[in-house]
Amino acid sequence: MANTDLVLTWFHTLVEATANVAFALSGLLAGVRKRLDVVGLCVVTGLAAFGGGTLRDVLLDRRPFFWVAQPTWLWILIGLAIAAILFLRAGHFEFTEKAIQWPDALGLGLFTASGTQLALAQDLPAIVAVLMGVVSATAGGVMRDVVCNEIPTALRDHRPYAVCAFLGGWAYVLAVHSALPPGLAFIVAAVVATGLRAWALVTGYQLPAGRSAAPGD
């Protein structure tokens, strides 16, 4: 049992690390597009990488926050911001919105799995655990977009976003109830959430949008 817990802890750390890097890249690219200075890049990168996980930890009453327990991540983000400034000055790179969407999709899937797993580990109901996965996966991107003076992607992009995280969270719950190993359940949830988002990006599929009332109606 101890070995199983150790493997799960190690795997969870790996997932969180990969998700942090993915969302950090999305924040970095967003900041570069807005021509922020190195301080602005650090702020946006940190919000994108740590925002969702921090809000999740607050709601689950987990202390210390994951980035406080592993402060090395702060130095990594500062290094990424400085590197981005140097690459930008070289003038050989074009940072488009499409470039932001792919690391964002990867982070979406990984944080969905991570948030859902942590909530289930506290014996919370399945629906609450899934919502914790959605919060983990989307809050960082929302903070990133707000600071960059954009309507959050989760709200303005009619292609599925939070819906992908929601379905990925349920995939994790079903995998666990099917007695799949925790590591495999992580992979299933991440693949479902990231895969659905990638499919929406490639095909351009959009959710139905509400219609505004015509003048005089």
From TrEMBL:
Glycine transporter domain boundaries: 14-87, 102-175
Localization, UniProt: Cell membrane
Spans traversing the lipid bilayer: 6-29, 36-53, 73-90, 159-177, 183-202
InterPro entries named among the record's database cross-references: Gly_transporter
Gene Ontology cellular component annotations, sorted alphabetically: plasma membrane
Main location as per UniProt: membrane
Key words of the record: Cell membrane, Membrane, Transmembrane, Transmembrane helix
Family statement: Belongs to the UPF0126 family.
Protein name: Trimeric intracellular cation channel family protein
Organism name: Ramlibacter pinisoli
